[in-house]
Design brief:
hpI Integrase, Chain A; 3-stranded antiparallel beta sheet; 11 helices; globular
């Protein structure tokens, strides 16, 4: 039989019994059979398109403009953005390859592999985002020349003045820029949700495409995570079904109505 206990209590109990087992005070750790409760889903807030435009206009020319533009136009995770290297940029195909993350662990920046197989992916980027990356590269080259031997040659795209990751300062910079722009106070991770929200509102962008760009392990997960964003799509499907078996004389475009291209 398995029981559920509060997450914090389970962790403490599990550690205590593990120590007791090591001391020979108990035969086994019975907390192993206790199921941890599901954590409550976090509240997601997103920007409306006009808020995103306001923010981007306010940070024009900022050293991290390209990072925030990438976040809003691709939905990339914070660690994926920080882990990007110039070797990961394919200018000919206008896309970036996600091959590593830089995350904070125990107060230090650590380079890790992406969280799943689908997280390793190529993400097409729009022309203005590519142009911002190219401008960022030129600015970084000037900074690199000024730093001279003090520059850490890590090939990272988003760095401080010494060539190391900007990760430790990103949260502070994000809050400062967000508040200065006078837009809704969302989290950095909500830029990812903002991308998904705007993309889902575009009728030509499918759940499959959004899932691939976000690096989700399945389309089902994308639909579950952003179920509210696809409500309109489901309503359109119901409306379409009303005409699905109608006589061709009763509907002007019966084939187009069910999403099949003619010819």
């Amino acid at each position: 039989m398995a029981f559920s206990v509060p997450l914090g209590s389970r962790t403490i109990l599990h550690r205590a019994l593990t120590q007791a087992q090591q001391w020979g005070l108990v035969i086994r750790n019975v907390a192993e059979n206790v199921k941890p409760p599901r954590s409550a889903p976090s509240t997601r807030q997103v920007w409306e398109p006009h808020e995103a435009r306001t923010f981007l206009a306010s940070i024009k020319g900022h050293p991290l403009e390209a990072l925030f533009l990438l976040a809003l136009t691709t939905g990339m995770r914070r660690g994926e953005l920080l882990g990007l290297r110039w070797q990961d940029v394919d200018e000919a195909r206008s896309q970036v390859h996600i091959r590593q993350n830089i995350v904070t662990a125990a107060g230090k920046l650590t380079t890790t592999t992406p969280k799943s197989r689908r997280s390793v992916r190529a993400v097409p980027i729009p022309p203005d985002t590519l142009a911002a990356l190219q401008a960022h590269r030129e600015a970084q080259q000037a900074t690199r020349e000024k730093a001279g031997d003090n520059w850490a040659d890590l090939d990272l795209i988003f760095t401080n003045h010494h060539g190391t990751s900007v990760g430790m300062n990103l949260t502070r910079v994000w809050y400062e820029l967000r508040d200065a722009a006078g837009v809704k106070r969302i989290r950095f991770h909500d830029l990812r949700h903002t991308y998904a929200s705007v993309a889902a509102s575009r009728k030509q962008v499918s759940a499959q495409v959004i899932s691939e760009r976000l690096g989700h392990f399945s389309v089902a997960f994308t639909l579950q995570t952003y179920v509210h964003l696809f409500d309109e799509e489901r309503r359109r499907a119901v409306h379409t079904t009303e005409n699905l078996f109608a006589d061709e004389a009763e509907t002007e475009t019966p084939v187009e109505a069910i999403g099949v291209k003619q010819g």
